[in-house]
């Protein structure tokens, strides 16, 4: 079938609207329909309201303003005929079988032949949905289950029936993969599919065990959070987030659909405290509060927690538990935290093992679903491997807990292994099978299993990723940039020039780079190691400049945060291939500094050559001043393009797994007839412009929008951006602007208020507004 | 032959010329604290130390404390000396005027304490511990406790102790077992055994107030479950006189290497009535108020012994006639030259002098910061001063006491066999000095405190309070040729310290044991640079004074010469220390335990 060029989403609730927004993020026009509210003047009120709300939401469902314009609101009475233009129609209406079926009949009457219809249901079996709707409909139908929020959760569960057309599936899967950036996991037509079947079981078990073992909410969340590799909200925090009122509905449908002997049935139990919370409207964040609440009585805001022991709210307490870092040590320790962790994880991990092959064909699908749908750092089978299957089975037996079939099959062997550099997983048949990546997916993780790095030190490595392309990887904590990275970049630049065609700068951390290592810098300041700090700046400038004018093309491929020095390295690349979820910005002013590794210089050059601005040197300077002085961070790659962190021809990749392959392709494309860029020249307005920007900052200060030290920092930034003591009749070179960056950065680094900012952000993670 | 004259000229140099002690009166609450007040106080202190305390030093050592039936008797003359000391107001010298104290600034007290330690270290421990106890009580005690106990402690009719150590629990106070059980009236019943309690029992005061670490029944295990209690030997009557004997008794006194006139007691608490000081389970915090102060004071013990040992050695070296100078007779009219003509004797004497004068300058710098931290109303200056005191406390404690011992040893060496025999009193200084390296946290623990806590705190912010002034000094004096004799070596050593600091921070983050392995050498390296900075500053002041022709050329020339000796002959040790630190700790860390 043809490419999906237009999509419709019916149902403009949280999920439907979010899915529509994300289709728009992919640059595909989308129709968003909902019912006509009774007695409404505006018959599109629901869909229009949803779009308006999403434009203000944070985190934003839309990646750009342009994306929002691609969503056309409508209603299911007047606009149903428009479905005839759509290649894919996604149903995301209320979870009632009769409502859905009635809608499908109306859709089927207008949709074009060969279009695909899917449901975002999370509880109704596919067989029930298509029953009685005819063979053609059944052939064009499947379940596509998104996770909330659809833009950010990378999991898409797909369920098909034997009747589903293979090419319909392929079209949706390709679209989901390349355009929506989702990882597709195939599930069988079983209640809750993979993610919710295991995820809700885990949540429920964790809640029940907290009551049974006498833990408080903070204690349970401290255990079932970060130490276990789960999101730091823990379980009670997560319930507050999704809404407690949702749980009875999910439980009702799950217990009705699952066999009587399924462990899920035993996990569900009436908890009087939760019943009372629901009756009193404590449904979580959307209600009056949940297990956590912000009590505003008496003026002050007090963070409170519901005590599971007394059933009353009390001020939030920090859990005083001794939690080992290692998962196995956690589960093995005979402490309150350890006993709780074991009670919950023994059941959860066992339950995961029961889901293969009942719900998923293989263990990798279960792990992928939990990582991408529930944001677990590791999937359940990866966690079992950390414990050792033998240890885990022995402990289950010791505690008289049932041992699932798959764990017997493993017979002490790990679920995953590496054989000849290939990652393999254990199948229900007891044999190991290669884990096959989708076509065109290239991951550094896989490459690293098969070869040694070309270069390596404590903070970075250089890899051969084939076809004459090398990949430079940061490996430091949060990928912060330090002297080791600079040293290896300098080495890599020489080596690549000699042996390779191109270089890609890429890594698979959660952040591309959080910027320069401020801890080291602050320590150096504190011991007055001024020469080291000077060297840090000049070396950084030289290395980045070396990248820019190297005799080979350099492609930066960020994903996640790319801030400060991590942004500046991208600005010196020939081109970027950015993951759609890239958050790029020059945030130095937040810690009382300015960009000094060429960030000011590159942004000035970009805005004066590529920015659609009025003539003359001043508009570009003012624009860059505004961006840097307010520490603007692009909230997507699309937004980064608007801010010129990406150049117009830079690429955006929706699927995280395809980023390296796309970056490599871009690098090879540039490598044909590559000529390094010409050094730019700068005409800058000089002191009068600095004065003007200073006045603007003053007015912000007077309105309480800028602090005392903000004025110092933005004043210093203005000196750099306006070109120091130059004027419009003179032409400056790159080295002139770099010298300005250097001297002004130095000045700020000696300022006690800057040091207080750096110290505060490092100690608390929060900015200091001094 | 032991002799002591308080080094008042050098003290005034440090107080006024080097550290501008006159400026203290600009701090809120110290308006009356001027040189006009300080000078007579220092002179009076010198007199008491030289005439009352010093003459009892050797006899006290010979006689020691006597223990009989739970009673401790101090050596002959101590009771009278204490009476004179107390009546002279010396127990109340630094105490808050609100409780009858004189509120003398710390920088002055640092000098007085040094004199007391020079004159009679054992004696000094009795009132010294009371000062620390007062600080803890003022900082953490209830108003009722303060009103009842402070005036007596300040006037010195009662004395104080710090009861931390137990038979199985020394450095690791989390192991403390002494228990306190609440009574209905808000007091507690405290039971347990404490050992190594200085001044735990004696006959100098009518009552002894013990500050005791113990556990409440609901205390969490470890260091977070320790509370601080006040336990008087006699329960005070309503009129403030000592009443009924409390359930605390002295079981024995230790027989020890030095400070023999100081009673080191085993104290048995048997359901003794106790009062909580500060919050439950927060005893360590309350105790540390006392302990930080004590650590600085112990550093001064090292300094005091260095000074007095130097004085004895110089006197002997001038008089002792043996052999001839290597370049021919210097005193042909005498049967032999005095040994002071020999370079090796001079090496020892100058090492001793450089240590004493350098530590005096450094100690006063830290003392001044204590005053600023306590009195300034500028939050930035307060934080900076607090950072500086926190950073320098382990250095003052360990460096000064190591120098105290090394210097006392030089003192014996200069005198040869006459130093070794008891008659001349020089060997007593070695024995007395030894304990200062051990108590209040061994010097190894001080070094760990420096690298483990003080270095990394707030991303190294403590360090700024030292490194920035030194860097600034070096930079602003770089084109002063007259000073380069001092500033150049300082610069060289300072760079070594910067590099070693960076190295320890870097490797210590990943492998804490590496920082532990470097700690002692690092503390000495840091201490030497701090002394070098003081010497460079003293040289600058002296050069200026010589230009001004104040008529004290000899004093300033000697200062410059001692500083030059320090730069040439002592500071180069930083090179060796630096090499040791950079070599890393693997030889120690990886040495198989079984092979020891």
Automatic annotation (TrEMBL), chain A:
<dbReference type="InterPro" id="IPR036291">
    <property type="entry name" value="NAD(P)-bd_dom_sf"/>
</dbReference>
<dbReference type="InterPro" id="IPR008927">
    <property type="entry name" value="6-PGluconate_DH-like_C_sf"/>
</dbReference>
<comment type="pathway">
    <text>Lipid metabolism; fatty acid beta-oxidation.</text>
</comment>
<keyword id="KW-0276">Fatty acid metabolism</keyword>
<protein>
    <submittedName>
        <fullName>3-hydroxyacyl-CoA dehydrogenase/enoyl-CoA hydratase family protein</fullName>
    </submittedName>
</protein>
<keyword id="KW-0560">Oxidoreductase</keyword>
<feature type="domain" description="3-hydroxyacyl-CoA dehydrogenase NAD binding">
    <location>
        <begin position="6"/>
        <end position="189"/>
    </location>
</feature>
<keyword id="KW-0442">Lipid degradation</keyword>
<keyword id="KW-0520">NAD</keyword>
<dbReference type="InterPro" id="IPR006176">
    <property type="entry name" value="3-OHacyl-CoA_DH_NAD-bd"/>
</dbReference>
<keyword id="KW-0443">Lipid metabolism</keyword>
<dbReference type="Pfam" id="PF00378">
    <property type="entry name" value="ECH_1"/>
</dbReference>
<dbReference type="Pfam" id="PF02737">
    <property type="entry name" value="3HCDH_N"/>
</dbReference>
<feature type="domain" description="3-hydroxyacyl-CoA dehydrogenase C-terminal">
    <location>
        <begin position="192"/>
        <end position="293"/>
    </location>
</feature>
<dbReference type="InterPro" id="IPR029045">
    <property type="entry name" value="ClpP/crotonase-like_dom_sf"/>
</dbReference>
<dbReference type="InterPro" id="IPR006108">
    <property type="entry name" value="3HC_DH_C"/>
</dbReference>
<dbReference type="Pfam" id="PF00725">
    <property type="entry name" value="3HCDH"/>
</dbReference>
<dbReference type="InterPro" id="IPR001753">
    <property type="entry name" value="Enoyl-CoA_hydra/iso"/>
</dbReference>
From TrEMBL, chain B:
<dbReference type="InterPro" id="IPR009100">
    <property type="entry name" value="AcylCoA_DH/oxidase_NM_dom_sf"/>
</dbReference>
<comment type="similarity">
    <text>Belongs to the acyl-CoA dehydrogenase family.</text>
</comment>
<feature type="domain" description="Acyl-CoA dehydrogenase/oxidase C-terminal">
    <location>
        <begin position="282"/>
        <end position="450"/>
    </location>
</feature>
<dbReference type="InterPro" id="IPR036250">
    <property type="entry name" value="AcylCo_DH-like_C"/>
</dbReference>
<protein>
    <submittedName>
        <fullName>Acyl-CoA dehydrogenase C-terminal domain-containing protein</fullName>
    </submittedName>
</protein>
<feature type="domain" description="Acyl-CoA dehydrogenase/oxidase N-terminal">
    <location>
        <begin position="43"/>
        <end position="156"/>
    </location>
</feature>
<feature type="domain" description="Acyl-CoA oxidase/dehydrogenase middle">
    <location>
        <begin position="162"/>
        <end position="271"/>
    </location>
</feature>
<dbReference type="Pfam" id="PF02771">
    <property type="entry name" value="Acyl-CoA_dh_N"/>
</dbReference>
<keyword id="KW-0274">FAD</keyword>
<dbReference type="InterPro" id="IPR052166">
    <property type="entry name" value="Diverse_Acyl-CoA_DH"/>
</dbReference>
<dbReference type="Pfam" id="PF12806">
    <property type="entry name" value="Acyl-CoA_dh_C"/>
</dbReference>
<dbReference type="InterPro" id="IPR006091">
    <property type="entry name" value="Acyl-CoA_Oxase/DH_mid-dom"/>
</dbReference>
<dbReference type="Pfam" id="PF00441">
    <property type="entry name" value="Acyl-CoA_dh_1"/>
</dbReference>
<dbReference type="InterPro" id="IPR013786">
    <property type="entry name" value="AcylCoA_DH/ox_N"/>
</dbReference>
<dbReference type="InterPro" id="IPR009075">
    <property type="entry name" value="AcylCo_DH/oxidase_C"/>
</dbReference>
<keyword id="KW-0560">Oxidoreductase</keyword>
<dbReference type="InterPro" id="IPR046373">
    <property type="entry name" value="Acyl-CoA_Oxase/DH_mid-dom_sf"/>
</dbReference>
<dbReference type="InterPro" id="IPR025878">
    <property type="entry name" value="Acyl-CoA_dh-like_C_dom"/>
</dbReference>
<keyword id="KW-0285">Flavoprotein</keyword>
<dbReference type="Pfam" id="PF02770">
    <property type="entry name" value="Acyl-CoA_dh_M"/>
</dbReference>
<dbReference type="InterPro" id="IPR037069">
    <property type="entry name" value="AcylCoA_DH/ox_N_sf"/>
</dbReference>
<feature type="domain" description="Acetyl-CoA dehydrogenase-like C-terminal">
    <location>
        <begin position="466"/>
        <end position="591"/>
    </location>
</feature>
